UniProtKB/TrEMBL annotation:
Protein name: TetR/AcrR family transcriptional regulator
Key word Cell division present: no
Species whose genome carries this gene: Marinicauda algicola
Gene3D superfamilies listed in its UniProt record: Tetracycline Repressor, domain 2
Domain (HTH tetR-type) ranges: 16-76
Record's keyword terms, sorted: DNA-binding, Transcription, Transcription regulation
A Pfam cross-reference name: TetR_C_28
Location of the DNA-binding region in this protein: 39-58
Record carries keyword DNA-binding: yes
Amino acid sequence: MRCSMTRSEALSEDKRSTRDAILDAAERVVEREGARRLTIDAVVRESGFSKGGVLYNFASKQALVEGMIERMVRSVEAEMEGAFRSAEERGEPVLPALIRAVIGHRKHNSRVSMALLAAAAENPELIDPVRDCVTEMRQAIAERSRDPDLARIAFLAADGLHFADILGLDFLTPDERARVEGRLVDLVSETSS
């Protein structure tokens, strides 16, 4: 374990902290007011940083949205890697752990996802990193699954639940939702054993 940082590493860490604080503020704006209200000025007000400080880190609204998407992709990748590694270390099937991770991540990030999709509607190439991440994730899962088609079905079902959340289609009660999610995990667990 390293206990000390070089000056350049400390500066890099400070910059990352500043960028994350700005992105946190941007997400709060998006959650509260929607993607259309995301502006540099709104992020300045929310973050408490100067306009110059925000612009130094994100030169435009598009750069800010790109930063939000990049951070979301990194978060998903980290959660999936963690679930995969944890399941393997415990000697458990990987697919159920990954499905639980996907369901959990999407529950906690629906409002930001909705806003980022809205922003990406204005500029469709912004969603490319998400598309690439999902493609890689599904390919890796299919390769590790005894039943790749069931793995795809499970992830499509998880996507359906996520998009229902994003679009406000509350067609399941909380109890029904929990049972559906549990059954989805059970389905992939049955073929993993």
